[in-house]
Each structure stands twice: as structure tokens, then as C-alpha cells.
Write a structure and sequence with these properties.
This protein has 288 residues and is α+β, with helices and mostly antiparallel strands. It has ten helices and six strands.
Length: 288
């Protein structure tokens, strides 16, 4: 083999190796954070996830199981690839949501034609302290609502709600009326659907807007023959009504649903069970 040919072959091999190595380097650079990392950037990630209503576990800078699960839920809700790793797209979307709290794309709404206006469902509203909660569901804080009821719109369908569901409705409508908004009216059809969703999450051991049984909230509504202009869903897992309500109000996306002026109807379904003690589903809509 000639020296000239050998030199050319060596150059070709070097180029081939370079072409193989470069994409690998680019792929690694695209991953901002991943499982088992521990640094200050993970702290920022956990704070961003909590601000959007997800539960990354303790804010301690350790990228462990709960943080990965929160990332997967965020990716699922925003139509991103559900890897559990934080790539540039996931990271930038999280940061943009934190910097644009009032962006209408964060609204948890969808119209009746099936076009989704929502890029942030914010479904994980678990209270971080549920494992350490010593307060019973019938605590004095919750019982106080019975002796000081909040004014509700006249609606015989309220009578078909459980005591706990009525309490959550009172808290929710108090938030609205304090801000000059009309209280939401109970729709017993939504109450029944909300109970089904809460029970389904317990029985099938998941916590997501997308049910393996019923699909998304919009699928549930259409299958039940309920027509609407806009609709939304809040989910929470907690041991008491008061703590669940507080967690929802402390989350940007959930609070936006509760205070959305367009909504007129609500259904609340609370079922005992699951890892948090109780499962809460709130369904909102503006009916035709």
C-alpha cells in the first residue's frame, strides 16, 4: 500500500470518528439535568416544579425519584417527550412559565371542538407534608366551616353533595366572592364525574389528568353528553380539605382555574383512599 494512499485512508478514518463523536457530544449537552444529579440547578428545578403545582419532593438539590416523577408529569402535561430527564426544551419551558405567570397559554381550558388551548395542566397538587400530617379529616379547622357557613348560590343540587364536598365548595366560592367574582354553581353531573375520576385514580394507582379509563377531562365531558365552551380540571391528593384547598390556591395553574371568570359550573368529587389519604377532583366549565 502506498504512503499517499495510507495518508488519505487515515484522514478518512479520522473524519469518520469525528462525525461519530460530535453527535454524542451534542446529545449530552442537550441534557440539562438528569436522575441522580446533585447541584444547585436541581434546587432551581425543584422550585420551578413546585411553583407549577408539581411535587418534586424535598427541595434539596437531589434529583431522585420524586423529582423525576414530577418532571415526567410536567412533560406529559405539556406534550413533551416523557423521559424524566430535563433537556433544554423542558428546562426552557419551565423557566418561561415561571417568568410569564399570566400567559394565557397556561390556562387549563379546551374548547368543545377539541382544539386544546392549554399547555399547562398542572395536575400534581400534592401537599409535600402529607406523610407528616397528624391532623384528622374531621379537625376543628374543617369543622369550623359547619358553624360559620359561607353563602352559597341557591341550588338544590348542593344537597346531593357530601359534607366534605360542600366544605370544599364553600372555600372555593369564598375565594371567588372575595375577589368580586360570581360563585360557581354546582352541576351534579360534574360532581358524579369528579367522583368517578377520584375513585379511578385510587383504584388504578395513578395521578394524572389522563385517565386510562376515561381519557382526558374533555373526553369525559363529551362522553357524558355535556356541552361546554371552556372546561378545566384540578386534581389534588391530601389528608384534609383545608390543606388540599391551600395547596391548590398556592399553585398558579390551579388557582387560575378556581378564579377563572368564564367558569360558571363546578363539580367536586372527594374519595377516601390512595397514598395521600383523600383524592380530590374539581371539574369546571362554562356551559352553552
Amino acid at each position: 500500500m502506498s504512503k499517499k494512499f495510507t495518508t488519505k485512508l487515515s484522514i478518512i478514518l479520522v473524519l469518520a470518528v469525528m462525525l461519530t463523536v460530535i453527535p454524542v457530544g451534542q446529545a449530552n449537552a442537550a441534557t440539562v439535568l438528569e436522575y441522580r444529579m446533585h447541584n444547585d440547578k436541581v434546587v432551581t428545578l425543584q422550585k420551578l416544579l413546585k411553583a407549577e403545582g408539581y411535587n418534586p419532593g424535598p427541595v434539596n438539590g437531589y434529583f431522585m425519584y420524586m423529582t423525576k416523577r414530577a418532571v415526567i408529569n410536567f412533560q406529559e402535561d405539556n406534550d413533551l417527550e416523557e423521559t424524566g430527564d430535563v433537556d433544554a426544551e423542558t428546562w426552557n419551558l419551565l423557566k418561561s412559565k415561571a417568568g410569564q405567570v399570566d400567559n394565557p397559554q397556561n390556562d387549563n381550558t379546551k374548547n368543545d371542538t377539541g382544539s386544546n388551548n392549554n399547555t399547562n395542566n398542572n395536575d400534581n397538587s400534592n401537599n409535600d407534608d402529607y406523610n407528616n400530617d397528624s391532623q384528622s379529616p374531621n379537625s376543628n379547622q374543617d369543622q369550623q366551616l359547619d358553624t360559620n357557613p359561607i353563602s352559597q348560590p341557591t341550588n338544590p343540587q348542593i344537597g346531593q353533595m357530601t359534607t366534605e364536598e360542600k366544605r370544599m365548595l364553600e372555600l372555593l366560592n369564598k375565594e371567588r366572592t372575595q375577589r368580586g367574582l360570581e360563585p360557581l354553581e354546582v352541576d351534579i353531573r360534574l360532581v358524579r364525574l369528579a367522583r368517578k375520576k377520584s375513585r379511578d385514580m385510587i383504584e388504578k394507582n395513578y395521578f394524572s389528568h389522563k385517565s386510562p379509563t376515561y381519557g382526558l377531562v374533555y373526553d369525559m365531558l363529551r362522553n357524558a353528553g355535556i356541552r361546554y365552551r371552556t372546561a378545566g380540571e384540578n386534581l389534588a391528593g391530601n389528608s384534609t380539605i383545608t390543606k388540599a384547598h391551600t395547596a391548590l390556591m398556592n399553585s398558579t395553574g390551579h388557582r387560575r382555574n378556581i378564579l377563572k371568570e368564564d367558569y360558571t359550573k363546578i363539580g367536586i368529587g372527594i374519595i377516601d383512599g390512595g397514598p395521600y389519604g383523600k383524592m380530590f377532583t374539581q371539574l369546571f366549565l362554562d356551559e352553552f
